[in-house]
Here is the input.
Amino acid sequence: MNWHDDAVSSHETGPGAATGVALLEAVRQDLAALRLPLALPGTDQTRLDLRRAVAQLDDYILPRYRSLDAPLLAVVGGSTGAGKSTLVNALVGHPVTRAGAIRPTTRQPILLHHPADAAWFEGQRVLPALGRIRGALVDGRAQAPADAALDPGPVTSLVLVSDSAVPPGIAVVDAPDVDSVSENNRRLAGQLLAAADLWVFVTTANRYADAVPWRLLLDAASRDIMVAVVLDRVPPAAEAEVSADLQAMLSREGLGAAQLFVVPELPLDAAGMLPAEAVGPLRVWLGKLAGDAAGRAGIARRTLNGTLLALAHRVDAAEQALSEQQHAADVLAADARNAYDDAVARILDATRDGALLRGEVLARWQDFVGTGEFFRAMEQNIGRFRDRVGAFVRGEPAPAVRVETAIETGLQAVIVDQAAKAAEHTDQRWRSDPAGRQVLGTDDVSGASEGFADAVAAEIRAWQGSLMELIRTEGQGKRTQARWLSFGINGLGAALMIVVFSMTAGLTGLEIGVAGGTAVVGQRLLEAVFGEDAVRRLARTAREDLHLRCQSLLAAECQRFLTRLEVDGGVPPSAIAGHAAALRRLAATS
Here is the structure.
């Protein structure tokens, strides 16, 4: 085991380190599992931030937490054409990276390290998702194997080049352009910068105020990462003015402590190299960092702690996003439930206001009770009334069944219509919301579901059967009414249904007289058998039963929408909240 392995081992085996690693691994696992299924404003950005957080845990936080003594990783980044590769070549004193006018120049990043530090980078300790290609210096220039160099596809590998010109204790990565025309290059540049212990950010006198570099510099400020800014290609006459302006901008944005190096505009030699003295101050600064083991550990710890705090903010944002997902789902669910609750209320209104006594139900009820002799019988004493109705019920059972059928048909039409209206309302409301539109997609759910009408008919028949059972139960032990229960169950059931629907608030004109009168017939018939109090109890029980059945039917329809809203974030919000607090404690004690 070499001295690097000893350093790694001693840091990993401490109880505090083990606890910290366990926390970071738990955070990584939960962030990777976290899902944000609803399309809310800002959700795409939060998903991207989560992927970046997971990548940074893999690429930088976990490796650095386990190995504070590892060499610093200095990433040279900047805008297109800023001169990053030329700068790296000047730092080591010979051409090692490709520099040229063709963009993008850096297709595969080169990681330069001292030969003694090879063990730190040849494995997958840092940037584990990137492959490793062992490069070599040929005529002073870094070369990767031919098959890797010719690969035109997305960058997936680091070219590792061992160069004794790089001081031990620090490695330098020439990163792709942060504003490259290649999306893969831009993504890789961001990944490398997120894995860096310190940034060497290269800009020019013409482009130092560009927006893209400043977004990245502000991210560096949020991580408290050490930054060196190289102002490249500065005309001698403008050096004082431009460098003062850039320094003022850095101070305003919280980067006043950043080291600023100015590289004057100078001609390159035949090999495309800057004069060595042009980057002398930067080379000396990097060399001092590399030679100070305690200083390196301090820089690593500072960047690590800042990154942990930035990660805690991202975890906070993830918790907020989860809460917003649940709230959005709750709002959509409430819209659906309200629509179907309103539908149930309208159905019950139709059963109370006499609306169901119109049309076919009214005609069948009139067929059953008659319009002449039966009404005259009502005017006689109750004994004669019982005899006449009893004979009628025993002799003509079919009309009572037709009343039940008419009620079933009319009630079914009302329930199906209201369910369709509830579905249409919910569909419209959801499609007016981005999350709702995503959940519904191209499915047409604006009407009642297939088979709903048959389910309603079956439920109504079950309700009618329950009314018959109520009548049988109520008549038990009443010997004087035995013959009524034997011969008139359907008639009494039809009468009870009519009583349930007999409030005439919704009827007008002639309907009030006819429907209201016939309803009185049903009520008088039931009272003659069971008594006034029992009839009220039977009607109330029947109405409550119908209410529950309608609620059940409409709730099942509503569930078509609600099942689409099962927002499973993959991780309990409480766990995410706990991670944020734990990361802040870890940053404070690291």
In short: Residues 293-352 form the longest helix (60 residues). The mean pLDDT is 81.
